[in-house]
Design a protein that fits this description.
59% helix, 8 strands, two-stranded antiparallel ribbon, 9 helices, 9% strand, six-stranded mixed beta sheet, 429 residues, elongated, alpha/beta
Length: 429
């Protein structure tokens, strides 16, 4: 019995322990499950966090790559713009170098009326003989002669020749531009203007000195020479005065060579020539050189004087600020317009003179008619009185007829702008 009771008690105890163990196991399993669940959740959160970090990194990488790409594009665009902008500068620099090589500085343009000695001066600056024949470019320039074919000037082309100053290799190179003379026929002047403007503006590009050659015997101001100077101002503008130097050609270096008035000195001649430019700024600062192509070379004094004058011209050109010929305005159209206006003014002036004559004739006819009316009436019908009245009426009719015909012509003639017309009419009145 005791053995059976012991076994039963032991079995109960074992059962309690088993139940307790089972409860503990269940609790432990539940806790383990919670831990596993928490671990799974933690792992999921870690995965999400890692994914977020990875996504943010990728996005940041993409943003960084995009910004870098845009910066690269901007740099490439700036480089392209710089290249595009630098191409004209490079080409311009190359053109300037080529132009400087083609036309060495200083550059001297020789201007003046026909037969003043421009070609002689150009050949002297380049150290050429008097009988020089242009085989450089085959053009009609730098050759001596007062007039060429059909009364035209010997120089009919614009030529730019280069060479050592006075043809001495130890001296720098210069460029001398010979031009046709003005003061010839109107058609020749228009052609000359076109040639000069085209050569200086499109080829030479800039000039250091404008040497205006005038004969030393030109001691008085003439209308034709004034027109030539005004034409130069119209072509180049008043700003070219800073680069102008006068050249008195055929100036005597000795008393034996003096063919002009002995009272004319260098100062007085220069003062008279300044009158051609008196309305321009800087005319009081004009300089002059005195050139004689026929000086006696065996005379040391004359040779030294010639070289001194030529050196003065060279130094003036070398020290002057270049005049850029791109600023030259094509003056041919403007000159034609001015000539047309002058012609219209002449026509109007002629019409005004005719109108004054008609008014005078009309007044005379009116006076004659009044005198005839004051005479006593002849009842017998005098033939002389009738003839006088008839002649007076005829004269009055002719005067009125001519007047109305001129008025009709004036109405059909071209009229300029209203403002100009009113000014001209007021001046005529």
């Amino acid at each position: 019995h005791s053995k059976t009771g012991l076994q039963t008690g032991l079995a109960c105890r074992i059962g309690q322990i088993g139940q307790q163990q089972t409860v503990e196991w269940k609790q432990e399993g539940k806790q383990r499950g919670n831990r596993e669940t928490n671990w799974e959740e933690t792992r999921t959160e870690r995965k999400q966090f890692i994914y977020q970090i990875s996504s943010h990194g990728q996005r940041r990488t993409r943003l960084t790559s995009s910004a870098e790409y845009r910066r690269k594009q901007i740099r490439m665009f700036k480089l392209a713009v710089l290249c595009v902008l630098s191409v004209p500068a490079v080409l311009s620099a190359q053109n300037r170098d080529k132009n400087a090589e083609t036309f060495p500085s200083p550059r001297i343009v020789i201007l003046g009326p026909a037969g003043a000695g421009k070609s002689r001066l150009g050949n002297s600056l380049l150290g050429r003989p008097k009988n020089f024949v242009n085989t450089v470019d085959g053009k009609k320039c730098f050759e001596i002669g007062a007039f060429g074919e059909n009364g035209r000037g010997a120089t009919s082309d614009v030529c730019a020749h280069k060479g050592h100053f006075l043809n001495e290799t130890n001296k720098p190179k210069i460029t001398v531009i010979d031009t046709p003379g003005f003061g010839m026929r109107k058609e020749e002047e228009e052609e000359t203007i076109t040639k000069v403007v085209k050569a200086l503006r499109d080829e030479v590009e800039y000039v250091d000195a404008f040497a205006i050659v005038l004969k030393s015997t030109t001691s008085r101001q003439s209308r034709s020479l004034q027109n030539i100077i005004d034409l130069y101002v119209t072509i180049f503008g008043p700003g070219f005065m800073k680069n102008v130097i006068l050249v008195a050609s055929f100036w005597a270096y000795s008393e034996e060579q003096r063919i002009y008035d002995s009272e004319i000195t260098e100062e007085s001649w220069l003062g008279q020539q300044r009158n051609f430019f008196k309305n321009l700024a800087g005319s009081d600062q004009l300089q002059a050189v005195y050139f004689n192509p026929n000086y006696f070379k065996k005379d040391d004094n004359q040779t030294k004087r010639f070289e001194t004058e030529m050196t003065k011209l060279y130094q003036f050109a070398d020290n002057s600020k270049p005049f850029h010929c791109k600023d030259i305005v094509m003056a041919l159209d403007e000159i034609s317009k001015l000539e047309k206006e002058v012609e219209e003014l002449r026509v109007k002036a002629a019409n005004a003179d005719m109108l004054l004559q008609m008014e005078e004739l009309y007044e005379n006819a009116t006076i004659q008619i009044a005198q005839l009316k004051e005479k006593p009436t002849i009842t017998t019908g005098s033939t002389n009185t009738i003839v006088g009245i008839a002649l007076g009426c005829t004269a009055l009719g002719l005067v009125l007829g001519v007047f109305f015909v001129n008025c009709y012509r004036n109405m059909k003639s071209p009229v300029t702008e209203e403002s100009d017309g009113s000014d001209e009419e007021s001046e005529l009145k």
